[in-house]
Amino acid sequence: MATATIIDGKRYAARLRAAIAVQIAQLKADHSLTPGLAVVLVGDDPASQIYVRNKGLQAREAGMHSFEYRLPATATQAELLARIAELNQESAVNGILVQLPLPKQIDPEAVIAAIAVGKDVDGFHPLNAGLLAVGGTAMVPCTPLGCLMLLKDYAGPLAGQRAVVLGRSNIVGKPMAALLLREHCTVTLAHSRTRDLAEECRRADILVAAVGKAQMVKGDWIKPGATVIDVGINRIPTPDGKGRLAGDVDFASAVEVAGAITPVPGGVGPMTIACLLLNTLTATCRQQGIPAPDVRPAAE
Ligand code: GUN
Predict the structure, then answer these.
(1) Structurally, how many domains does the chain consist of?
(2) What beta strand segments (E) does the chain contain?
């Protein structure tokens, strides 16, 4: 009975953050520059508060400046846009992230479009999405960037591999498909209307699941030896009533078939914040006309 390699994203992300910290120290020594990340949180969603706190902590740990802005849940779109306009002008701020989701009265598309393209460390601005699609120098969304790094290390040479991406969101699915295409994979972007999803998945050498449905992808959907990246973070009930996190992949059955697989938690999740720090470093360098370093995880 084969058992997959379990991809330790938590450890990989810690190594990546260590490598980023080294580059930031270098940037300070050589250019007297300290990257600054501004995170804006509107309202008091508990999950968002935890994410924002972790982003600030990890940014400071890597040697960056971290600026946090909180607006009340009742804030207007105009108030948020005014804050973004200030941050766009602020030279100490190299990266801007507005935590999503936003309260109902605010249009997320208008907010994303208002962020200066070069400071858009989420890579959500339509110009960055377009640059990624046409092969330009874009800011790449953090979660797909983290998935790609793991794939480069665990899936062997990517060129020519059949990749299936499940889910067509602007945040994960579409940019993931664009990145895999850039790596010369043969890419299928599957979604809720795809006919015979299981059959599409069975053809995949690389399977990236980002649909938000707990344990949807079963072991018998997976090609033996495939590399499986699980982006899902879903809370499922447990007998003790506390619930636990589960991915979009049914880990217990998938681990028997896949060649390598990310767990949930501890897989893709920690890579997202590490890639946010990487994007902030990259944005800082580009703004200053300094070549952005090709950051690789520090050796174990
Ligand atoms: N909310 C959940 N994930 C993200 C993310 O990657 N970026 C932003 N801005 N908000 C989020």
Answers:
(1) 2
(2) 5-6, 36-42, 65-71, 95-98, 162-166, 186-190, 206-209, 227-230, 234-236, 244-246, 260-261
**Is 104 one of the annotated active-site residues of the chain?**
no
Tell me which residue has its CA closest to atom 3 in ligand 1.
100
Provide mean pLDDT across the span 37-42: 98
Is 41 a domain residue? yes
Domain co-membership, 254 together with 162:
yes
pLDDT digits (tens, 9 = 90+) for 198-251: 999 999 999 999 999 999 999 999 999 999 999 999 999 999 999 999 999 999
User: 100 CA distance to ligand 1 centroid (A)?
Assistant: 5
Say if residue 175 is in the same domain as residue 115: no
Ligand 1 center to residue 173 CA distance, Å? 14
* Residue 24 resides in a domain: no
Give a yes or no: residue 126 inside a domain. no
> Of 23, 119, 120, 122, which is the active-site residue?
122
pLDDT, position 298: 81
pTM here is 0.97
Residue 6, SS3 per DSSP: strand
* Spatial distance between the Cα atoms of 135 and 24, rounded to a whole number of angstroms: 27
| 99 touches ligand 1 (CB under 6 Å) | yes
Q: DSSP class of residue 101?
A: S
274 Cβ below 6 A of ligand 1: no
Q: Indicate whether residue 200 lines ligand 1 (CB < 6 A).
A: no
Domain limits at 43? Answer: 30-119
pLDDT digits 0-9 by tens, 87-140: 999 999 999 999 999 999 999 999 999 999 999 999 999 999 999 999 999 999
Q: Which of 40, 50, 97, 176 to mutate to test the pocket of ligand 1 (most atoms within 8 A of CB)?
A: 97
